[in-house]
Design brief:
Order of helices and strands: HHHHHHHHHH
Number of helices: 10
Helix content: over 70%
Low-confidence stretches: none
CATH superfamily of the largest domain: Tetracycline Repressor, domain 2
């Protein structure tokens, strides 16, 4: 009967092979796109046989979905601080939003090939995966709405249709990421992208006249 130590080592080897397949799949999908990628391409990159692949994943779609879920977990984790310690003032709201947005942008940029692929092809895989992608965007909009509702309730955000504004925020993030990765903002770094987005969200576009009287 296998010892506990042996079971643990077997589990570690199994997880290591699974992670190796995920890393290879991420590289191959980013290079070739979802529809042109074959399982043989993934196992060749990983240096394993197809039998090893099928011990961990049912098909190409399942490993793509696993990559999608891993990326979402990393992105969602960047908002845990805001969820566990909700902002109590407009200043805290702005600071926490900027910090969470910057961390999210860094995670997405570190995984830009996969994230860009998901934006381009996620909805084209099949109807079920399209609903999954749309559901994820809705979940992030609902998260944004919960923070907006808090701000409105506590008086440090203006009265608004928080459902509409939350959807607009998610749409802005998606559009900006796609444009930045496509090279439409040459010379722009993450901090500038984040700062401009946060300034738009909190300050709008209209300059506030300086009403201070000269001394």
């Amino acid at each position: 009967m296998p010892s506990e130590l042996r079971k643990q080592r077997d589990q570690e080897r199994t997880e290591k092979r699974r992670l190796s397949l995920l890393e290879s799949a991420s590289r191959v999908f980013a290079r070739q796109g979802y529809h042109r990628t074959l399982i043989s391409d993934i196992v060749n990159d990983a240096g394993v046989g197809q039998g090893t692949f099928y011990r961990h994943f049912k098909d190409k779609r399942q490993i793509f979905e696993a990559l999608f879920e891993l990326l979402l977990q990393k992105v969602a984790a960047q908002f845990q601080d805001m969820e566990s310690r909700p902002p109590q003032s407009a200043e805290e709201f702005r600071s926490a939003s900027r910090d969470a947005y910057r961390r999210m942008a860094q995670v997405l940029d570190q995984n830009r090939d996969l994230a860009s692929l998901l934006l381009r092809e996620g909805r084209t895989i099949d109807a079920e995966f399209q609903r999954t992608v749309e559901g994820v965007f809705l979940e992030f909009a609902q998260l944004a709405q919960s923070f907006l509702d808090l701000g409105v309730a506590r008086g440090f955000a203006r009265p608004m249709r928080t459902d509409i504004v939350a959807q607009a925020i998610v749409g802005l993030v998606i559009a900006l990421a796609d444009s930045w990765w496509a090279g439409r903002f040459p010379g722009v770094d993450i901090d500038t992208l984040v700062d401009e987005s946060v300034a738009l969200a909190f300050d709008g576009m209209i300059a506030i006249p300086n009403t201070a009287q000269p001394s």
